[in-house]
Amino acid sequence: MLKDVLAGWRRFGGPLAGALAVALREAVLDGRVRVGDRLPSERRLAGELGVSRGTVVAALSRLREEGWLVTEHGSGSRVRLPRNLGERYAPLSVDGRGSLLDLRRAVPAAPRAIVTDAVTRALGRSAGLLLESGEPGPGLPELRELIARRHTGEGSATRPEQILVTSGARAALALLVTHLGPRRIVVENPTFFDSLATLRRFGIRTVPVRVTAAGWDDDQLATAFREAAGGAALLTPDFQNPTGVLMGSEDRRKVAELAARYGVTVIVDETVRDLDLRDHPVPEPRIDRAVTIGSLSKTVWGGLRVGWIRGPAALIRELLLDPISDLYAPPPMEQLVACEVLPLMGRLLGQRRSELRRQRDHLAVSLDGDDAWSFSLPQGGLALWLRLNGVSGEALAGKAAEAGLSLLPGPVFSSDGTRANRLRVPYTAPIETLDRVVEQLRRAHRS
User: Fold this and answer.
1) Hey, what domains does the chain have and what are their CATH numbers?
2) Which of 62-76, 271-285, 314-328 shows the lowest mean pLDDT across its residues?
3) CB count, 10 Å around CB of 203?
4) pLDDT > 70: what percent of the chain?
5) What is the mean pLDDT of residues 315-325?
6) How far apart are CA 74 and CA 90, in angstroms?
7) Using alpha carbons only, what angle is made at residue 357 by residues 354 and 362, rounded to the nearest 5 degrees?
8) What is the radius of gyration, based on Cα positions, of the chain?
9) What integer pLDDT is reported at residue 345 of this predicted model?
10) Is residue 172 within 8 Å of 307, Cβ to Cβ?
């Protein structure tokens, strides 16, 4: 009975109708009430909960206005998720409803309708898959074909045998550095903190190259590739994380030339390549002869653990012969779900880009004109990279954390502990939450 599901609902406090509405919404979010369930009649629900019918009517009216219920004449009310909640980029946890607002990770919620439909379709055609062993391998043939087709469509002719499916981009990076075994690896300064953690875990010496709003430091690029001769380089030329900078075609040619001259394997992280927020997104040409890694974590959902490596077919064969590759393979059912999602990426990316562009611009306008910091508007990616005036990133992040706002300071993204006056502020949260972020940042800076 619904009264058992809602036991203790009065603890939410305030007017009874408001507390009941909150309790019902929370019950939907944690699965105690399922999307699609029909609620009892207003009279019956009032009797079960021991409140007036007016209280129930007011609570249900509020939920109906917010999009949590749909009422059909003569059939009662049925539970649903609000459209803007089920399709938006921001996870529910960054809505700022509680006292803690954690923006240390810039990650999306799943596009609910697309993913649930994909799961249903994948399950419906899983008979042949379930009759096989399910053992790890290079990936489902259909999925490798779809990924190869996307690369080819962007100007990089690719065959399925050039694709190895992994359980995410970090798994792809770990497999590559384990197999290649570089003693030195060129990295950007700053760069994504998870990538740095992976390289440190394998004890690889990093050789940093400075990246600013103006791009990659040419002199440091040449020096770093020379120092890492025979090793590897990990670069994010498309909307670099955390700066959001896009590498120009001339620098891409220079990287390819340096790699050939010094025998360096270039590994390109493409996890945010699709998050191009320019008015007319056009994929940049890839760095010649680079090995690329990608995933669905930043565009679709981190819970769909599907990534990939794209490289020469000979390298993919070598990786498959490495026993450790089995540890980095995703479950076949998740791959089948990805097969259903990838054909819909055009529509999904349009929604994602539009939402992120709107949130980026709102955050930029809100932060602009303040002497406490400065920044360059990125052409894509997920965050603003603030240059702070008169305070370190660690100090400001620490003060903001005291008020319940968690952000990452610059040194976290640096292989040598520099970037002390920087702070990453993701614009992946809803606009109302971003307003709260700006307010708390200003208060923390003043203090």
Assistant:
1) 2-81 (1.10.10.10), 93-110+346-446 (3.90.1150.10), 114-344 (3.40.640.10)
2) 62-76
3) 7
4) 98
5) 95
6) 36
7) 125
8) 25
9) 96
10) yes
What pLDDT score does 33 carry?
86
The C-alpha atoms of residue 62 and residue 57 are separated, in whole angstroms, by: 9
Average pLDDT over residues 106-122: 94
- The dihedrals phi and psi of 407, each to the nearest 5 degrees, come to -135, 165
Angle ∠(431,22,34) on CA atoms, nearest 5:
95
Q: Which residues contact 365 (CB under 8 A, 6 or more apart)?
A: none
CB 189 within 8 A of CB 419: yes
398 contact partners, CB below 8 Å, separation of at least 6:
none
Q: DSSP of 301-314, one letter per residue?
A: -TTS--EEEE--HH
Query: Which residues, listed in sequence order, are joined to residue 385 by a DSSP beta bridge?
Result: 424
Confidence of residue 97 (pLDDT cuts 50, 70, 90): low
- Residue identified by tokens 């706002």 is 405
Which DSSP state fits 418? -
Instruction: Please give the residue that has the higher pLDDT: either 220 or 16.
Output: 220
Residue 425, phi then psi, degrees to nearest 5 = -125, 100
> 223 by DSSP, 3-state: which?
helix
Cα separation, 155 vs 210, in Å, equals: 29
pLDDT given for residue 258 in this prediction: 98
* Mean of all residue pLDDT scores within the chain: 93
Q: What is the mean pLDDT of residues 166-179?
A: 97
Residue written as tokens 């502020």? 425
User: Which whole-number Å values give the CA distances from 91 to 224, 250, 345, in the listed order?
Assistant: 38, 37, 19
Residue where the block lists tokens 């998720």:
81
